[in-house]
Amino acid sequence: MRVKWGALVALATALALPVPPAAAQAPVVLKVAIVQQIDSLNPFLAVFQSSTEINRLMYDSLTAYSARDQAVTEGLANRWEPSADKLTWTFTVPAGKRWSDGQPITAHDVAFTYNLMLADEAARTANGGFVANFDTVTAPDPATVVVKTKAPQVTMLALDIPIVPAHVWERVGSVKDHANDRMPVVGSGPFVLTEHVPGQFLKLRANKTYWRGAPAYDELHFVYFQNSDAAVRALGKGEVDLVNRMTPAQFDSLAGKAGVTRNRAQGRRFTELLVNPGARTRTGEPFGDGNPALREVAVRRAIAQAIDLDALVARVSLGYADRGAGLVPPVFAQWHWQPSPEQRRAFDPAAANAALDAAGHPRGADGTRFGLRLLGRAGRAYDEQAAEHLKRWMADIGVRLDVRLVSDGQLSEETTAATYDLAFSGWAANVDPDFVLGLHTCAQRPGADGRGGATDAHFCDETYDRLYAEQLSEFDEGRRQDLVRQLQARFHDQVPAVVLAYDDALEAYRSDRFARFPTQPAQGGVIMGQHGVWGYYGAEPAERVAPAPRGWGGLAAFGAAGSSMLMAIVVYLRRQRATAGERE
After folding, report:
1. 3-class DSSP state for residue 304?
2. Is 226 helix (H, G, I), strand (E, B) or coil?
3. Residue 287 DSSP SS3
4. For 181-185, what is the mean pLDDT?
5. Are the C-beta atoms of 75 and 64 separated by less than 8 Å?
6. Quick one: which of 6, 388, 489, 558 has the fewest CB in 10 Å?
7. Beta strands 370-377 and 422-428: pairing type?
8. How many CB atoms within 10 Å of residue 272?
9. In Å, what is the CA distance from 26 to each residue of 22, 192, 193, 545, 546?
10. CB under 8 Å to 237, separation ≥6 — which residues?
């Protein structure tokens, strides 16, 4: 064989020539639209769904729920073992996991977080129910956390508490006053918060040393919009990549739109109407200014009976929801409660009128019995539309309704202060029902200063508390399911709130920019609002690297592959040179 020596030398020489450096690759950014304000970046204080979601991206918990089927999986701990009497739980925090500043994550961080909650009332604001039954928490060595409880606690693998770095938080003087906004915020999750402009945006960068592995893109931005209309328009223009909490009309409008993929899932949220039952602190002092008539359960039941839940699902949710009943949405079928025919509260204005007459609230000369104030979120289509229906239905039973739509922050402040009669609200239930049930215990009411509790409806009921304590210690799942359903039935009967609907999750994303988002659960699940980080963490860019340009830039982009080819040619040339004489 005759070797084309000159051609090979020329090619090798060309590849060896110096080339201009390639242009820096622009970061891949996932932009997410949010319409709910951030109440706090402090994980001990944050209760808004938007804030909770961001805190989960920054801080891991002790255990997690898998994306595939929501089964308990590794968090900061990779092993756990209860004692025979279920009063002592031992967790193993393996070596090798690190905070975003490079410091090791140890059992000391876990013990510090839980003990801070036990010692500081403000630190129990968001998730205090999880530790209310804790006796002691210790870290005998860097890999071991030991939690002793006062009574058996079935939720020990469902502690949705962000673990904070002790070496940072030990220097925090006051938890209730700490904004947690010193950038970059040290965390353990897949993203690190680097910038926050309230009411405008939050920016996070990928944590390249995350123990599960770095995300497949560089930055995650949450962009704030005043309402979902503006957010959906931005998605259509390609200004954001992911949107949720759309109205049914907005969701339908995106059908068939180029570059956009929709996702409809059975959500884990419910929408409710709070009915102020008369707020009191944990020590029994009354506060707030709710209408005294609402302290009567007969009046609260009459109001609930005058609300047509089926009409709200059909006319406001346009069928993208299920009729409300208990506190746990039907997506968690094993815990969901549906009333029996005897318990079901049918829409019956005539019966509601009769009940108000019997309760001693006659109509006046103008046909009105009393007036109530209704609070809702400005810019939220559901609140705006449902309020109009409620005004008509309440008028039918002689109740004058004054509607006021306010910001997220103001709504939170007024419901916390109990300066309302009726108010639209809602919560997302966890995989384990304990958290959403625990919001309604007497212990979740605020302290004397109005702080420290996470009550949803200012409800306190001896029967409810007894059932709650029983389910918390019940390890037989069938028996616990029965107790959880009894709890929901009691809540429904006492009416501190009316669960209006279980909303479908209506989401859409720019599939021309991001090819895939993991859902939770894998079949029919949600992208945003997960019980975890998978939707954001596992997002896959549609095109991570742009096509290489022609010419010298293309050779520069060739990089390692070009170097490898050059070396192969050099080796080949050397071998051919050594054997060329024999073959001639």
Report:
1. helix
2. coil
3. coil
4. 97
5. yes
6. 6
7. parallel
8. 21
9. 12, 19, 19, 9, 10
10. none
Name the residue type at position 563: S
Q: Which residues contact 500 (CB under 8 A, 6 or more apart)?
A: 270, 271, 272, 273, 307, 309, 312, 324, 386
Cα torsion 445, 199, 248, 431 to 10°: value is -40
Show the tokens assigned to 426: 């809602």
The two structure tokens encoding residue 236: 């259509």
Contact 77, 145 (CB under 8 A): yes
Q: With 90 as the cut, is the pLDDT of residue 149 above it?
A: yes
- The two structure tokens encoding residue 309: 């839940």
To the nearest 10 degrees (0 to 180), the angle between helices 477-494 and 462-472 is 160
Q: Is the pLDDT of residue 566 over 90?
A: no
Give the pLDDT score at 25.
Answer: 85
Average predicted confidence (pLDDT) for the chain: 90
pLDDT digits (tens, 9 = 90+) for 308-339: 999 999 999 999 999 999 999 999 999 999 99
Per the CB < 8 A criterion, the answer to whether 12 and 570 are in contact is: yes
Instruction: For residue 450, give the nearest of 423, 417, 411, 420 by alpha carbon.
Output: 417
Q: Is the pTM of this model over 0.70?
A: yes
- In tens, the pLDDT along 441-492 reads 999 998 877 666 779 999 999 999 999 999 999 999 999 999 999 999 999 9
**% residues pLDDT > 90 (the chain):** 87
Distances (CA, A) of 457 to 93, 255, 424, 578: 37, 38, 11, 88
